[in-house]
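Progress against Task 2.4 (sequence-to-structure conversion) is shown through the following example record, which the project officer requested during the mid-term review.
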Amino acid sequence: MVIGNLTTAAPTRRYPRGTDLTVATITPAQNKAAARELVSGFSLEMTGKDVPGLEEAAHAIPQGTKINVTFLGNEDLDMRVSAAKAVKDLGFVPVPHISARRLKSQDQLEEFLGRLQEVGATEHVFAVGGDPTEPEGPYPDSLSVIRTGLLQKYGVREVSIAGYPEGHPDITSDVLWRHLEDKSASLKEQGLDAVILTQFAFDTDPVLSWIKGVRDRGIDTQIRVGTPGPAGIKRLLGFARRFGIGANAMIVKKYGFSLTNLMGTAGPDKFVTDLSALLADDPSTGQVKLHFYTFGGLLATSEWVREYLAAQA
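Structure tokens generated for the chain above:
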């Protein structure tokens, strides 16, 4: 199965083993400058177990790229710290996640921050609520972590916070907006830089509407729109269901694949190109970049970025 629009003049793309789409081409955007502006300076995401994959992909990732390191329940302290150290050692910028509801105590938070500081990985962090329904300790949400005042103590200069263009399955829209405003205000009061990093989406319309909502509330910080790197369609749909992302037949067709054939691989070509054009048409959207969720692997995503940018030259 071939996904998206094709042109024989564009660069080729390679996907992970086990998919039935091995080579595809990338269509140059109509507004190439806007596409380059959106994609350049992208960030990536990895888990604590992805260090071998990062080493494999390192040659394809620009030095200085921000790479988020997750805080999952099946990872321990050593694994998280080792992954953050590997990111830094390879010449990238680690952005370790701090999962508020997974923290059992202030001591655990300080131990984590202290270990990260020892390896030079605390300048940038991502404070997020986390998956557990009930908090395992004193922090019910990321705002409570931010308000401890502990982040600066361990050398944090920039804090990423979560944004949800399509909402959250367990949190009302009013609460999401209030928390975004409160977190932004708290970081500003503490003299910490902020980045808003969003959940991924398949549809540019709610993303653009949400960005405008952020700006209408007077929040002018950089936004990094989450989007999946190239990955198997079944895998993408599984994550979409898990996180409450809209993925009906009309939406996924707009993204570039069909629900009638789930054995292929989809890339973010059309989403990225369409979003870049929409942002270019509305300067009030401010500074917007991309954050790639590497569901199909760090190498596949990094090669896709490199080839997408080459197509816009």
